[in-house]
Amino acid sequence: MYWGGTLSDPGVVHPSSGQVGAGQRVSAEVNRQSAALQGVSPQQFEGFLQSQRDRQTQSQPAPAPTPQPVPPVDTSAIPSDSGGDTSPVIQPPAEIDLPKLYDNLFAEAGISGVQNSIKEQESLLADKERAFVEAKGKINDNPFLSEATRVGRVAKLESLYQGRIANDIRKLENLQGEIETKKADVETKINLELQQFNLDSETAQRALTQLNTLLEMGALDNATGIDVANLTRSTGISSTMIQSAIKSRIKEPELNTTLQTIDDGSTQWGVLIDTDTGDVINRIQLARSKPKVFAPRDDTPSASDQKAEDIGVVGGIISRYITDIDEQRKISPESLYRQLSLQYPLAIDFLSENWTAADIRAARKKK
Fold first, then answer.
1. pLDDT tens digit string along 305-342?
2. How far apart are CA 1 and CA 25, in angstroms?
3. Is residue 84, in this structure, part of any structural domain at all?
4. Sign of the C-alpha dihedral, residues 139, 141, 145, 146?
5. Rounded distance, CA 197 to CA 189, Å?
6. Residues 172 and 107 in one domain
């Protein structure tokens, strides 16, 4: 019997049906009537029901055996492989505690504090509006005022009210924009952590190109917090970095900058670069590097070895450049710095700390 989305046992009134005899076997009379409706004999119908009962009994799962405790294995007695195989033991990646990750990012972003500030600001505006309505009501209810006097006083009161709340409204809008950018940062970090957003994807790179175009045009000079939040979600670049690029553009309109993403093998960075000099203006950590896919053992250098190699190559290139007049005629210090930053991202710290474009130019002049 079918009832409430479930079937009862064969030949049994569904226990949840609420009918007389619920949970009990259907009477022989009802079975005879059912057999007649289906054009079979009562014996055939009862045989069918019995076969269904037998099949259901056979399909019941056997009780699970009681698990026995497994004694700990003494690994000290296991001999080490003397064949010299130093292949690393691949450990499964640690599971991400998403609720904890969200709570930590939420707390680090200071979203709760901004939410409290918004509530306080909304309460302040509500109090001022309440006082304005009361004052306006007293003027309108004063029977001793002429119409002209009443209208004049109401207009003056409204002007004062708008002036007093204008700054409060701007502050509230700024707080609302701030919380949107912080939420966008949290969402983006989680998506990067879960590998649901790829900074190297065609979509992210196209969005980053559009962002740089808008920056260059000055179209983001008056961007709101919501605008910045949407840019963060589309590019993966943190709101702090985007706002830094906007401020640099406003402060120095002639300064040409570009935002880039760089993976140094352990961390993915958002980097703001002066396109004229190649200098790094600002950078911020976006996420951990994407996990590498393990393959059979090969001689690929580790990230630290590769970084040391890149620094050595970069140092050699700069040393040759500052002593070779022919090389200096081919490329400017600014272009050289920019090319090295892009070609050897693992050496960007070394460049920023030791060989900025200005450092290269100064060293070249001394030779």
1. 777 888 888 888 888 888 888 888 888 888 888 788 77
2. 11
3. no
4. positive
5. 9
6. yes
> 196-248: per-residue pLDDT in tens?
677 778 888 888 888 888 888 888 888 888 889 888 888 888 888 888 888 88
Tell me if 69 is assigned to some domain: no
Looking at the domain assignment, is residue 197 inside a domain? no
Question: What are 125-162's pLDDT values in tens digits?
Answer: 999 999 999 999 999 999 888 999 999 999 999 999 99
Q: How buried is residue 13: exposed, middle or buried, by Cβ count under 10 Å (0-12/13-18/19+)? A: buried
Residue 160: give the domain boundaries.
Answer: 100-188
Domain membership of residue 114 (yes or no) is yes
Of 263, 288, 313, the position where a domain reaches its end is 288
Nearest to 245 by CA among 289, 202, 275, 268: 275
Please check whether residues 248 and 184 belong to one and the same domain: no
Final residue before a domain boundary, out of 188, 214, 241: 188
Is residue 177 located within the same domain as residue 228?
no
Residue 207 sits in the same domain as residue 280: yes
Q: How many structural domains is the chain composed of?
A: 4
**Angle 111-141/147-193 helices, nearest 10 degrees?**
170
Contact between 186 and 165 under an 8 Å Cβ cutoff? The reply is no
